[in-house]
Design a protein that fits this description.
alpha/beta
Length: 204
């Protein structure tokens, strides 16, 4: 089963509010986006948006230049159905983050909560970084959330990478100025706790 088929199966067979990465609101992500991009005209991309409520909360905060990307069409359709008429205010992108084409320097904020840690091959991570550099404007911001060093070794049956702030920033390099990092304890719908690492950078 390829990556696309895997995630389509997940969202076809599981309740999107019961998957381990679900949270009613992505509070840390929302707070960081508001801090780094206070203008509601900021162009924001959410990588691996899935069926999360981040677009709901960003729309409620007044943001209107939103793009939601996921490899699973089913996941995005869940969000679109939930948003109803508001879904028309969002750009929906179905595709693989390593293959999809972006307009150059078109984004103010690149947000990723838990896609990057699925990239277990060096070539995949290098390609991902190339995509970020191509798409994000100079002085734009990148918000990355991955499993921390105490996080799980697998997610949804797939192997994952775990990072501390140094190793995660090292993957991106000196072009990305690390502004800060923090760890967050995420409680899954089943009551388990997972450690997430957030790093946020500015593109120099």
């Amino acid at each position: 089963m390829n990556t696309h088929q895997h995630w389509e199966t997940v969202y076809h067979t599981k309740d999107s509010a019961q998957v381990s990465w679900y949270a009613p609101h992505l509070e840390t992500s929302l707070q960081l986006i508001k801090r780094l991009a206070p203008s509601t005209q900021a162009r924001i991309l959410d990588v691996g948006s899935g069926a999360s409520t981040l677009p709901d909360d960003l729309l409620a905060a007044g943001y209107r230049q939103l793009s939601m990307l996921d490899i699973s069409k089913q996941a995005l359709e869940i969000t679109q159905t939930r948003l109803g008429e508001q879904a028309k205010q969002v750009q929906w992108l179905v595709g693989d983050i390593l293959e999809i084409e972006f307009a150059p320097q078109s984004l103010d904020v690149w947000h990723d909560r838990a896609v990057f840690h699925f990239l277990t091959e060096k070539a995949q991570r290098e390609r991902y970084v190339q995509q970020v550099l191509h798409a994000v404007k100079p002085n734009g911001h990148v918000i990355m959330a991955t499993f921390g060093t105490e996080g799980p070794k697998q997610c949804s049956g797939l192997e994952v990478m775990r990072y501390d702030s140094h190793s995660l920033h090292h993957e991106f390099g000196a072009t990305f100025r690390l502004l800060d990092s923090l760890t967050v304890k995420h409680q899954t719908p089943t009551g388990m706790t997972q450690q997430f690492l957030y790093c946020y950078c500015r593109v120099e």
